[in-house]
């Protein structure tokens, strides 16, 4: 039996298979009401209980008994320059290279890479395990997600899992409680921000660890099942984007590159970012989730 609860954007979700799912749903329901009471004195007991279900192979409770750092880190100039450059190209070259085929390409790639890749694969499947599918379909939609330039699947699911467990607490990597801009994009520009929000053992494991190594207990389920495929994606991540740009140029010149890569990337990036920012400030909150997440129809339209 699979325990399935579809997620509405911005709302808390628990969709884990069978017994573990029921247990997690129960624990999270009880704990969520106490979420607002989280202090900065280290994760409370309910959080450590939650994480035992996120990382079932771990007994490293000590890894979670740390305090989030409040220090602001220096700006990551490489990421900042990339972010600014993509926006400048989108707003200057976008109108100049517009064509109907380029617009259709942009929409088609948005649906493929954002809806299938991020929303269906990274989010619903790899992070929340909301459904089961054939391995080849899993690889296909995960590859679509990797082409959307929001990080490799291992990094993305680590960040999102942690965000769900600690939404709008001091351990949340991106919460509007630290400012709307910080939640939307600013968090991404701070060097080592993730390391101020979650244990180093977990961050390091998702970047470097392979099965059999000490930090293996923190690796996600899909990596354990198919380490070769997800290692391949992690190690060749940027090459696929370069190949996509070359392919788009060969198919339709700079018009296809600007609309199929840059404009599509900027739209999908702000769609996903809006879930972290706007959907935690404005919208309906029909369920008591214990955090600030809300259902916002406008955010839903640009993020899925
Ligand atoms: Zn989620």
UniProtKB/TrEMBL annotation:
> Which InterPro entries does this UniProt record tie to the protein?
Acyl-CoA_DS (IPR015876)
Could you mention a single GO BP entry for this protein?
A: very long-chain fatty acid biosynthetic process
Q: Which GO terms describe its molecular function?
A: oxidoreductase activity, acting on paired donors, with oxidation of a pair of donors resulting in the reduction of molecular oxygen to two molecules of water
TM spans (from-to) = 104-122, 242-267
- Where are the coiled-coil regions? none
What keywords are annotated for this sequence in UniProt? Fatty acid biosynthesis, Fatty acid metabolism, Lipid biosynthesis, Lipid metabolism, Membrane, Oxidoreductase, Transmembrane, Transmembrane helix
- Localisation: Membrane
Signal peptide, first to last residue: none
Q: Which cofactor does it need?
A: Fe(2+)
UniProt topology in membrane:
Multi-pass membrane protein
Query: Which GO CC annotations does the UniProt entry carry?
Result: endoplasmic reticulum membrane
Sequence similarity: Belongs to the fatty acid desaturase type 1 family.
The record's PANTHER family line, in alphabetical order, gives:
ACYL-COA DESATURASE, DESATURASE 1, ISOFORM A-RELATED
* Entry comment, domain topic: The histidine box domains are involved in binding the catalytic metal ions.
What protein is this chain from?
ADS3 protein
Taxonomy of origin reads: Eukaryota, Sar, Alveolata, Dinophyceae, Suessiales
């Amino acid at each position: 039996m699979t325990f399935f609860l579809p997620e509405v954007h911005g709302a808390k979700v628990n969709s884990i298979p069978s017994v573990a799912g029921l247990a997690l749903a129960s624990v999270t329901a009880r704990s969520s009401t106490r979420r607002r009471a989280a202090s900065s004195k280290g994760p409370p007991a309910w959080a450590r209980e939650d994480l035992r279900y996120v990382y079932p192979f771990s007994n490293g409770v000590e890894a979670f008994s740390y305090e989030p750092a409040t220090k602001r880190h220096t700006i990551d100039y490489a990421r900042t320059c990339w972010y600014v450059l993509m926006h400048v190209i989108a707003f200057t070259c976008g109108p100049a290279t517009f064509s109907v085929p380029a617009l259709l390409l942009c929409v088609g790639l948005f649906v493929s890479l954002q809806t299938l890749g991020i929303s269906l694969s990274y989010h619903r499947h790899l992070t929340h395990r909301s459904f089961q599918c054939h391995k080849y379909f899993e690889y296909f939609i995960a590859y679509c997600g990797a082409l959307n330039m929001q990080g490799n699947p291992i990094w993305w699911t680590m960040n999102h899992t942690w965000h769900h467990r600690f939404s709008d607490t001091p351990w949340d990597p991106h919460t509007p409680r630290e400012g709307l801009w910080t939640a939307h994009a600013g968090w991404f520009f701070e060097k080592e921000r993730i390391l101020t929000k979650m244990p180093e053992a977990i961050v390091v494991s998702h970047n470097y660890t392979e099965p059999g190594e000490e930090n293996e207990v923190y690796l996600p389920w899909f990596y354990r099942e198919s380490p070769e495929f997800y290692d391949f994606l992690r190690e060749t991540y940027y090459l696929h984007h370069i190949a996509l740009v070359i392919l788009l140029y060969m198919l339709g010149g700079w018009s296809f590159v600007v609309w199929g890569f840059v404009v599509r990337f900027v739209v999908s990036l702000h769609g996903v970012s809006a879930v972290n920012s706007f959907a935690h400030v404005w919208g309906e909150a029909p369920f008591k989730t214990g955090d600030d997440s809300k259902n916002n129809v406008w955010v839903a339209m640009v993020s899925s």
